[in-house]
Design brief:
Elements (H helix, E strand, L loop, with lengths): L1 E7 L12 E5 L7 H11 L5 H19 L5 E3 L3 E9 L9 E6 L5 H6 L4 E14 L5 H7 L2 E3 L1 H11 L32 E2 L3 E2 L8 E9 L2 E6 L2 E2 L4 E3 L4 E7 L7 E4 L2 E2 L3 E3 L2 E7 L5 E8 L14
Parallel strand pairs: 1-7, 5-6, 10-19
Antiparallel strand pairs: 1-2, 3-4, 4-6, 8-9, 10-13, 11-12, 11-14, 14-18, 15-16, 15-19, 17-18
Length: 303
């Protein structure tokens, strides 16, 4: 059972969101390897607690090892694990010196002063995970049971005069909201979540605009922090974003962020990729294939 808290948005950066309440998961804590091993031990007598712990630790180590070798490691019904990079923009001219290594990006001013200064292709190397199988949005949406926390129930009763109900919509795997990037458009403007203590209640007060354009008749979802992101939303620098594309039949989608291609991985007809919000306003272009019918990606535009 997932418990939901409501946080009031006090940021007017996105039109139509000021004063509205947005749900966030109330986290009960963090489970580590030893915790998971103890739980798994209760369900099997084939392995000892130490053996289970060792296997989980070995698995984590192997995922990292092979991801750093350039493999996409797929754990069925959990996720696709792979290494990704934060790329630096390189100026390639006669006399330029370029390294595949890691380092800060050289500014135009630095290169003007020293055209042969070493430029590094990579800012940082990181691990990303994309949901697959039983952890995709459709599967999670269909199985999740939701209810408000007691505190939130009291708040709703106080403000509306009506007691809220638990998850009785019967929609199960409905794609409303989380499957439409237009959604509430407020995912980046309301309270943040913390792994240890649930909703921190903090408010995002600054960010950079992400303009989203979709071409083609397929569908695309952009999300950050588990919330849909609408075109024009303000996102903090380095905010982790996920892109999920269901292309037109027989088509292969592609996406670019400020002209740089986003790597997409296909699983059961759905293509997913991750990117981090740059330190300035950015443009995300998604090509889903097929005729767009002239909608120009309206399902991703803000109201």
């Amino acid at each position: 059972m997932l418990e939901i808290n409501l946080t009031k948005n006090t940021n007017d950066a996105i039109q139509g969101t000021l004063g509205k309440y947005y749900g966030r998961v109330e986290y009960k804590g963090t489970l580590g390897v030893k915790d998971l091993a103890k739980i798994m031990k209760k369900h099997t007598t084939a392995f000892s607690l130490g053996e289970i712990t060792g296997m989980l630790l070995d698995l984590a180590s192997l995922i990292k090892e092979y991801a750093l070798m350039g493999y996409v490691v797929k754990i069925d019904d959990l996720g696709l694990f792979k290494a990704s990079i934060d790329a630096n923009g390189l100026t390639l001219e006669q006399g330029s010196r370029v390294s595949a290594g890691r380092g800060a990006q050289k500014t135009d001013e630095q290169l003007a002063a020293n055209p042969s200064a070493m430029q590094f292709a990579v800012g940082a190397v990181k691990m990303i995970m994309q949901a697959t199988g039983e952890t995709t949005i459709a599967s999670m949406n269909g199985e999740a049971q939701l209810q408000f926390t007691s505190k939130t129930k009291a708040l709703i009763k106080q403000l509306t005069g009506n007691a809220p109900t638990d998850d009785d919509s019967g929609e199960g795997g409905s794609s409303t909201g989380s499957e439409t990037a237009g959604g509430n458009g407020g995912g980046s403007s309301t309270g943040s979540e913390t792994a240890e203590g649930g909703n921190s209640g903090s408010q995002q007060t600054a960010g950079h605009a992400l303009t989203i354009t979709k071409n083609g008749s397929g569908t695309a979802v952009v999300s950050s922090g588990g919330q849909p992101v609408a075109s024009g939303a303000l996102l903090e620098e380095d905010a982790e974003c996920e892109l999920s594309v269901t292309p037109a039949e027989g088509e292969t989608p592609n996406a670019t962020l400020d002209g740089s291609e986003i790597e997409l991985t296909e699983d059961n007809g759905v293509w997913t990729g991750n990117f981090a919000m740059p330190d300035a306003a950015a443009v995300l272009v998604i090509n889903t294939g097929g005729s767009s019918g002239g909608n120009g990606g309206a399902d991703l535009d803000k109201d």
